[in-house]
Amino acid sequence: MNLIEQLQQIVGANGVLTGDDVRSRPNHSWGRGECPAMAIVRPRTTEEVSRIMALCHAQEQRVVPWGGLTGLVDGITCEAGDLVLSMERMQNIEHCEPDAGTLRVQAGAVLQSVQDAAAEAGWQFAVDLGGRGSAQIGGLVATNAGGNAVVRYGMMREQVLGLEVVLADGRVMSSLNEVLKNNAGYDMKQLFIGSEGTLGIVTRAVLRLRPAANARQTAFLGMNSFDDVAALLRHLQSHLEGKLSSFEVMWANHYRFMVEELATHQTFLPVDYPYYVLVESEGQFPDREEALFTSVLGELMEEGTIADAVIAQSGQQAEQLWAMRDDVASLIEAMAPMAAFDISLPLRDMQTYVAAMEQGLAKRLPEARVVVFGHLGDGNIHLVVGNIPDHKAVEEVVYGELRNLGGSISAEHGIGLEKRDYLAYSKGEIEIDLMRTLKHALDPKGILNPGKVISA
Amino acid sequence: MNLIEQLQQIVGANGVLTGDDVRSRPNHSWGRGECPAMAIVRPRTTEEVSRIMALCHAQEQRVVPWGGLTGLVDGITCEAGDLVLSMERMQNIEHCEPDAGTLRVQAGAVLQSVQDAAAEAGWQFAVDLGGRGSAQIGGLVATNAGGNAVVRYGMMREQVLGLEVVLADGRVMSSLNEVLKNNAGYDMKQLFIGSEGTLGIVTRAVLRLRPAANARQTAFLGMNSFDDVAALLRHLQSHLEGKLSSFEVMWANHYRFMVEELATHQTFLPVDYPYYVLVESEGQFPDREEALFTSVLGELMEEGTIADAVIAQSGQQAEQLWAMRDDVASLIEAMAPMAAFDISLPLRDMQTYVAAMEQGLAKRLPEARVVVFGHLGDGNIHLVVGNIPDHKAVEEVVYGELRNLGGSISAEHGIGLEKRDYLAYSKGEIEIDLMRTLKHALDPKGILNPGKVISA
Known about the structure:
Chains A, B: InterPro entries: FAD-bd_oxidored_4_C (IPR004113), FAD-bd_PCMH (IPR016166), FAD-bd_PCMH-like_sf (IPR036318), FAD-bd_PCMH_sub1 (IPR016167), FAD-bd_PCMH_sub2 (IPR016169), FAD-linked_Oxase-like_C (IPR016164), FAD-oxidored/transferase_4 (IPR051264), Oxid_FAD_bind_N (IPR006094). Chains A, B: Its cofactor is FAD. The structure is a homodimer. Chain A is an alpha+beta fold. Chain A has 15 helices and 18 strands. In chain A, 35% of the residues lie in helices and 21% in strands. Chain A has a seven-stranded antiparallel beta sheet with strand order 15-12-14-13-17-18-16, sandwiched between helices. Chain A has a five-stranded antiparallel beta sheet with strand order 5-6-10-8-9. A four-stranded mixed beta sheet of chain A has the order 1-2-4-3. At the A-B interface, strand 9, helix 8 and helix 15 of A face strand 9, helix 8 and helix 15 of B.
């Protein structure tokens, strides 16, 4: 019996895709390319995943785990002969504890359905991002996804109470903890969060829910200097009393691009400020929330920290503001050929970095143009560099200047294949050695998502 | 040259203690026993720690890392011939970023001094516990310490942005990240948090600070049922808008013991409620905070969820309430011979558990008496079982009933030596196998805190 037949015995004939059903799936981020894998196996239960991995381990078959394919770093890319293990038939929302605020789901559960289940129980699931309609919990765990509310709720890691993981050899590590505090031995689930499918396959998770927020306040602010932006962040963190849920900065080049060149978005504020900030707070009581938000922003306007402001007067207006911030697709389309980056570094170094990066680009790639924005409350900025002849030359400038300042080449997207060769820009030799030690200890045959994150 | 002399060459003659200077230090929790180690080496720098470990690795010398000795599970216990590595001369608060709210410290820095440095910069360090005057950051990291504000701010893990760790062979893994978001490769620091000194020696940490809280509200509540306690928790989590910072439950047997038998604490409420809750919220604006707190509690009293309440009218009164909750020392002294436990389990199982545990004790140890209290918002309860003939018999009841419900034998104190033989009550076989795999990969000679957490 060949491998395909053996897999069919485990998951049924419908569970294994081959030929055009494989070729029609992508091989790269943004849906690009054609998947060259030998097959896509689609288990329905943890036990099936376990049997698949035991089989692949015995045969040294390379396995590439797939979630919702919303990643951006080629973490799902296959070579010919690879087997894709897709979680698309493991989407169950299994159990909710409405008193404690926990939710147990299969790894293939889609983010949107998890958010809906949380809302139905009177809670919220606090990770949110543009790919919510496709992104799966397993992939979000495996990439330690971030999103727009990290400044308040943390990344995916902070939403995971328990995990069930199938190891490279098919053993099932079940650690479906439900409580905030559990110091009984090493917290093994931490190993798998953010390991991008290279150490194990997440099959199930217990998620921590947060109290639902019934009152949102949103404002778009014009700022005269980066120092004012930093002071604003500091002030809102304390004076909004922990309720600051988003702090998104747009450099002037980004705002202008969105409202002048794309012209699909409204001009909320004049285009002559050097920085703009989209801020949001989340509370329970609409009246109280509005009073606090407007009084805190009012004081900052009076003292000159904020130069100009629009406070959203309706949910619709808030959505328009967010639509501008989140319209990365239009930006990327308009700037092609382009390269997009997702970096992080301390607040104190950001101005220095952006200036050095812009100078470096002007010198090496005078035709290129750059747009800068990001989740500043998390130290995370995104760069889109457009009109470029050569991806590599841009990477050398962007990552080179970052290396000088000790920044991270990946704030939230992960490493995958795309950034792998730059990993040493952000991690020391010994840390990378230790990553290899770990990879070897957990996947000695190197069959799990081979070549991703670290080279073999 | 013998080992002592070699160590003296690294840290200077003053850096190595022997003889009575070792014997005068404890060997167990609560300051009990006499340390039988061959010596205590006290490095001042990471480089010295690195050289010490390289030497010990070469000679297969067992090393027991020491922080402030406030642990409660015999994680610092030595055998004759062991070398203690104490961080007591590495107490520097190295660097604060007042805008970003981060603090870099050496691992020997004492919690109180870290809290003070944070306060001086206009922030707070959010982990707090009774041992703040001695507990060191390195030990708090190594044990993933909890404390009284976990329900709001999380455990130590959530306060650690970056770590520097000396590995078993002396290599220095420096990963002093300062930003909230960094997905450049596996997050190796997670391995060391909560590993109780068995995988590496924390030498330095970058800590996340939180906005200072200028307005605290504290109340002590009498409750008619456990269901009311659960409803109260749920309601406060949403209606205090994320500002609920403590939710400490005292079963009637605890409150009565404190106010009737010890009689050193004030009787704040009548003694006839089955449960009492100490709640605290932390905000920025005293007037607003008081208004919110009293209105939310007032509504709950009106609808009968809260049976009786005292709201602290001053900082002093709040301190008296906390003094009662935190006076574990008196409790333990009064109940000797006793055994203390620190367990966690889901809210839904708590009543079942406590009843089964009490029945089990009544049957097996009719003379014993038990006092129950805990951080209920975290699923964490503490038990003190007094007047016992036999530690092991108590453990079998307490842990046995817990195992039936899938609870954790250690919510926050860790495993150390004390709970090691019960680890399998809370962790599956494969998870424990994986812990061993990790231990072997990182400390192949087994020289780091040998025998703690998992047996060799």
